[in-house]
Write a structure and sequence with these properties.
94 residues, alpha/beta, 4-stranded parallel β-sheet
Length: 94
């Protein structure tokens, strides 16, 4: 089984930033797609069309955890909570 760090670094993994557009503009993981938490439920089909695995992150891991649960309830699989932006940057640096 791969670690989250390995999954994040695997080419083709979809990285989704669920922070606000303003937060995203201030800095984000290279290649991340911004889908704010308040838009996740309306954009499930778009998220489902992204390549799996899908790693979601926010500032602290709270909003991305909520988003992962929403998507799992909608039937999506291969979802991971990447935690906060800082956590993601550490995983990508190693």
């Amino acid at each position: 089984m791969s670690s989250l760090s390995e999954i994040v670094r695997t080419p083709g993994t979809a990285v989704i930033d669920v922070r606000t557009p303003g937060e995203f503009q201030m800095g984000h993981v290279k290649g991340a797609i911004n889908i704010p938490l308040d838009e996740v439920s309306q954009r499930i089909a778009e998220i489902a069309a992204l390549p799996a695995p899908r790693v979601l992150y926010c500032r602290s891991g709270n909003r991305s955890g909520i988003a992962v649960q929403m998507l799992k309830q909608a039937g999506l699989t291969d979802l991971y909570n990447g935690g906060g932006l800082f956590d993601m940057e550490i995983m990508l640096a190693n």
